[in-house]
Amino acid sequence: MSIVMTTRPPEAPSNKVASFKPTLLQTEEHHLCPGCGEPVAIRLVLEVIEELGLAQKNVSIIGHGCYGSFIMTMDVDSTLCLHGRAPAVATGLKRMRPEVAVWTLQGDGDMTSEGLAEILHATARGENITCILLNNGVFGDTGGQMTASSVIGQRTKNTLEGRDAAYHGYPIVIGDMVAAMPGSAFVARGSVHNAASIAATRRLIRKGFQRQMEKKGLSLVEILTMCPTGWFVPASGGADYMMESLGKTYPLGEIKDIAATEQA
Amino acid sequence: MSCTPNRKPVALGPPATGRGYLELDLFISGIGGQGIQLIGKSLALAAIKDSRHVMLAGEYGGHMRGGSSIGTVVIGAKPLKALPILPHAGSAIAMSHLFWERVGSRLRPGSFVLAEETVAADLPDMEQHRLVKLPATAIATELGSRMAAGMVMLGAFAALTGAVEIDSAVAAMAEQIPSYRRQHIEANERAIRAGAASVTPMAFAVDLDAREVA
Amino acid sequence: MRQVTRGTLVIDADRCKGCELCIVACPPRVLTMSRTGNATGYLYPELAPGCTGCTACQQVCPDFVFEVYKYHEPIVSGSDAERMQ
Amino acid sequence: MTMRLMDGSEAIVEAAIQAGLRFYAGYPMSPATELLEYMAEKLPHHEGVCINAATEIEGINMALGAAAGGFRAASGSCGQGLALMQEAIAEAALNETPIVIFNMARNQQDYFQATRGGGWGDYRTITLAPKDLHEAVEHAQLAFHLADKYRVPVIFMGDNLLARTQMGTTLPQLDLAPLPPKDWQLDGTSGGTGKSRQIWTFGCGKTNDPGPGPSKHWERIAAKFDAIAEVEARYEEGFTDDAETLVVAFGSGGKFVEHVVREMRADGHKVGYFRPVTLWPYPGEALERASQGCKRVLVFELNAGQMIDDVRLNVHDRKLVKAIGGVSFDESGLNLGPLMDATVIRERIELAIHGASK
């Protein structure tokens, strides 16, 4: 089969329809593993921020996880806060700067293990912040240990035979918990395992930021992200593994949208 | 700080030494609750109105549960040197003889003690102090508000010592009464004025604005 | 065989980490993995004629190695000879 | 301003708001509760926010967020609550977020906590320990000034006596030098400019503008604390020129000791007092000088012996140092106990001078 030359732009008349990276990322380079879903999710958030005209009107509050290294490459005002505390830090900043889009970036270990109190209380207070949860059901940064969101049967470095409900407890389905609270405006779960899901997730993130700017309350956009390294599967198998494991416990779609409720 | 000196003499017991200027230091002793605290706070607020320097401290622990309640008030013309826990004082108001040990043991000899008449007999060692007895509860009862006995004592203390103006004491009391208890203001005012009217100012007045004699 | 190519890519192959997510994401199935490694030893995607410029590869790529172009006029068959290697 | 009668908690809150405090998040705990209540009451009248946090951990992290946004922010509690905040206090030191932490302590057992800290890393916390309400009013202003000046956390350490004793005050304002604008604050306006801002403990900066990285970043912060130690130590002393007995105490204890020493001086005793106003930086050189020629250095503190370590480190002869304080609570366990009493302190000083035989 013939191979097309792809080392430079085409000479025939054409439009560039997609760039390597979103403009709010300073570089394409990062050190995350092959097949990781997090860079894709971060790309979506940055693209949405730009689309909504929030590039010079946003602050990111970043938790602890592999995604944290993006504090060096995301060209937005940022702070990397203590593990689990992002919704609290975001609360303080948002209350003092209500005009700014304040968003948190946390993994499932950060949000549902260490920081469960912070996300739930931020929701209870109805803080106008947008919380992005990158859920891969594992502590990726430390090499693949169980989080509160690891699913039943999931093998991790400290659930070698798979997470056993009787021994390790049940996974925390944070989206449902947050959605059940009156302080949340928008709760949805997306995924980056294929192009269609990515496009859908972009719309969810967009709504998440819109509800914040409409001052409707807290929005939580959970994004299932592949972590083949932490799951001990080949990079190319991450997407399928994710939907067969996490995908069953964490179904995709909108869980709550206060705008829809208000129209009804 | 603007602090117009009030030249009015203030009567008190023997002054504490080492403070530079004279300070009126007072314990208010009784059984837990707001009566004692209200006397202390009214005195302190009134003194502020009279442009004095003031400290008001309580001894905490039992006062919310009906136990001992001791209030401390210090009034002076200059920034105060007194400690928030007074090792000793020169005057006292006694609403009860219960829990008196904490106060009595800390009175300097020759202190001025204003005591509710019915408890005065139960206060030990009064021969070394200047005791003034006042039937505050009887006066308050006659006015139709027995609970205002503390206010009678407040009025009497103010009049006896000249520590604060009577009008300042009334205003200070009124501003502390919560809105849902406005009806008590009038009764309290009558009690303060009745207390003031029931005594004659003491002869052994000391000028708070005078520098302490070494 | 007549082949319509509506778009094309620039692939920053040396930054590719070889995860292969783009291979399955590509609707016209015109991406295949290379046989030899890039600068860091990873296999990387190569493009065959028939790209539609849909951006699916670019969207799924965690390493931002794709840039996507759409031709003003589709290229038919092998007429894009100058871009062949 | 005319004189107003306030308890220490209210005076501190008023002074802090005057000093520009706009955000407070706390959790009730006696005797810091009133501070939270006054904050909740007063901050909304000054375009400020007070949040009843779910935990001390949440509260201090909220304050970190508000401070990162460029606002004067604080949290507070008493020692146990501050124990929960240690990670965030260290974080504030290492990522250079200026915040103030009010510790309305139950006693004086938080000295190590404040001066040594329980967080990780090479950091220090400037700790102000006012002796009474009037000094607390000054310290409430100074705390925010120092926090902003150096981009550090500052601990304001009072106690329940300070919190609850009411005094007349005009809330005098300190004349503090103006500070440069906060060009580091996260106001959200720098995205996409290539000059976006960052607050990060690891100090690595952005790709297009790399920072020094963790090792050099923390080295620089350690050097900053050394520089603070050089210039920000504060103390008060009296009668130290010819004192044979020097009594060292802090906070309310320092006020009591000063009172007792003045009394004893009036009675002819060669006694002096030394009060560190900043617990960190510890005014060690001043103490060394003040203790020259003394026959004994007595340390009065309401704990089992904490500041005494710093006294021993700094006096010219550590063998002269003797503790005369101790653990002292009332029966509720919440308040200063019987040792915080001028009569007791005098007895203990006299016992140390004359020996048990007297």
UniProtKB/TrEMBL annotation, chain A:
InterPro entries: 2-oxoacid:Fd_oxidoreductase, THDP-binding, TPP_enzyme_TPP-bd. Pfam families: TPP_enzyme_C (PF02775). It is an enzyme of class 1 (oxidoreductase). This is 2-oxoglutarate ferredoxin oxidoreductase subunit beta. Residues 77-223 form the Thiamine pyrophosphate enzyme TPP-binding domain. Its EC number is 1.2.7.11, 1.2.7.3. GO terms for biological process: cellular respiration; small molecule metabolic process. One of its GO terms (molecular function) is 2-oxoglutarate synthase activity. It comes from Aminobacter aminovorans (Chelatobacter heintzii).
Automatic annotation (TrEMBL), chain C:
It is an enzyme of class 1 (oxidoreductase). The keyword Ubl conjugation does not apply. This is 2-oxoglutarate ferredoxin oxidoreductase subunit delta. GO terms for molecular function: 2-oxoglutarate synthase activity; iron-sulfur cluster binding; metal ion binding. Its EC number is 1.2.7.3. Keywords: Iron, Iron-sulfur, Metal-binding, Oxidoreductase, Plasmid. Residues 7-36, 43-71 form the 4Fe-4S ferredoxin-type domain.
TrEMBL record, chain D:
Coiled coil: none annotated. PANTHER family: SUBUNIT OF PYRUVATE:FLAVODOXIN OXIDOREDUCTASE (PTHR43088:SF1), SUBUNIT OF PYRUVATE:FLAVODOXIN OXIDOREDUCTASE-RELATED (PTHR43088). The keyword Glycosyltransferase does not apply. InterPro entries: 2-oxoacid_oxidoreductase, PFOR_II, Pyrv_Fd/Flavodoxin_OxRdtase_N, THDP-binding, Transketo_C/PFOR_II. Its EC number is 1.2.7.11, 1.2.7.3. This is 2-oxoglutarate ferredoxin oxidoreductase subunit alpha. Residues 14-172 form the Pyruvate flavodoxin/ferredoxin oxidoreductase pyrimidine binding domain. SUPFAM superfamilies: Thiamin diphosphate-binding fold (THDP-binding), TK C-terminal domain-like. It comes from the Bacteria.
